[in-house]
Design goal:
The chain is α+β, with helices and mostly antiparallel strands and about 350 residues long. The protein is built from eight helices and 17 strands. The strands form four sheets. The chain has a seven-stranded antiparallel β-sheet. Strands 3-2-1-4-5-6 form a six-stranded mixed β-sheet, with helices on both faces. α1 (about 25-45) packs parallel to α5 and α2 packs parallel to α3 (about 135-145). It starts with 6 loop residues before the first strand and ends with a strand.
Length: about 350
Amino acid sequence: MSGNQNYINHVALVLDASSSMSHLREKVIDVADQQIAYLARRSQELDQETRVTVYVFSYDVECVVYDKDVLRMPSLKQVYRTGGMTALLAATLKSQAELAQTAQLYGDHSFLTFVLTDGQENVSHRCPGSPSRKPAELVKAVSSMIEGQADNWTLAVLVPDQMGKREAMQYGFPKDNIAIWDATSTQGLQEAGQVIQEATEKFMVGRTKGIRGSRAVFSTGADAVNSDTIKAAGLQAADPSTYQLVQVARDASIKEWVVESGHEYRTGCAFYQLSKSEKIQARKQIAVLEKKSDRVHTGPEARALLGLPDAEARVKPDQNDEFTIFVQSTSVNRKLVAGTRLLIMN
């Protein structure tokens, strides 16, 4: 990207406005307005231009705000009304097809869409402008559309239950771009808003590191790591002479293992292997180990790669055949688990 090109984000909210969402109408407006206020603040802080598009869908799909500067967005009070059925597939197709017509000149453009639904698809085949009257053909159309999206597109969906997740996967949504929310309460919707905000933070911080899109926008853990994302994040391999990897043979404190390995224990010099879900504080560094080569990648970009905001966040170890996550320890008493490894930075 040349120096005069700016980051331009096109963020779309595709909101279920079917009858079953009527008890949540006020909260949907509240959560959407919170998301827009957050986007406005972070766009200024990160010096990124953000344009917002909003679609609502029930028995039809309507674009109520198109590619509007986030700093000039009105509340959704005037445009979000409920009533009707759930044209989920039609909304996904229309939103992505129309956004794809947006000019991408003179800037590093990236598209991020969140679809929020509280139920199952049931009316797209009868929608005005639907490309097919057959539900199976609509599923196929959405699946091939998602598969063909460029690397600067991120399409995510929030569904109410496991059945919704299975259906979303059949539609072609990447599994780590699907989240489940509690559609029965305003509290559940508030939590869904938090999930969207965390995913957006990961996206916007990732943009500053050169990551243009994500197929793991809801994941914060090892499953977000591969050779492509490492390269996109600009993570550098550390000089092998600057670190040592130690096999942990028994449960013992991190200080004990560092000293036993012939090093003086200094706070922050040792990284433990992430072996269970846990909260990681904002100040802690992350290292990523490539298993087959034992090469270690570290630096501030590693946090962005895992989708960690500049705040405390929960991270999952996940199963990753190629990479292992290590977390900096600031405690002398942290217990290391036998069978894991310890990373000591010289």
